[in-house]
Amino acid sequence: MAPPNNELSAVSGARERLSRFDLSPTEVHLILQEAEAAWRNLFSSLAPRVAPGIARWARTVEVLRDIMAEKGWEPWRNGGMEGVVNRERRLVIVPMTGDQGTGVANCTARNRYPKGIHSEAVVIDNRRQAVFPFAGEGDPEALQLLEVWFLLFARVQGELRCEVSLPTRMNQKVVVEWKERILLPSVALDDDSGDDELEDPGGDYSVEIARRGS
User: Fold this and answer.
1) Which domain holds residue 129?
2) Is 205 within a domain?
3) 171 - beta bridge partners?
4) Neighbours of 2 (CB within 10 A)
5) For range 175-190, the mean pLDDT
6) Which of residues 145 and 73 earns the better pLDDT score?
């Protein structure tokens, strides 16, 4: 079940909530459907396993940036994280593969693959702003903080689920708490490819380096 402190925006309220980001549910669906088409049209079963996931993630970022550029948003990068930013509103959107709870109100969505230090850092900043919303007044460094929202998407049971949500806590490299989730309608897929099994290169990763014994 979703934690009680989550603020959920159900499908019926998604259009109003998304207006803050200059987005509509239709545009989000267009972005994700373009990305689905990219990996299907580019690769056969002979391609490396990571190739389709790289193509889908890259196309998601590319189409998102193309659509948002006309609305004054700019490319945003932080380590391996890629997205768009509106600096005037201090908002960032980062595409990311979610799990089966994506887009489902009575489930807590998670990022499907573990993320690294850059994701953890922006989530900590999100929580800082959520818990102390006025703490940054008069603090130039705090006023530079951005709200980093995740555009989660997942192919589950013949449909493409999605949401735009604000993460505020991670544990073991996975988001476990959201301040707000804007749930969008799912999109039926015209294939029987099953649940999402594509490798996800989006976001950042922690690389552990073990020191060799002498």
Assistant:
1) 7-188
2) no
3) 174
4) 16
5) 92
6) 73
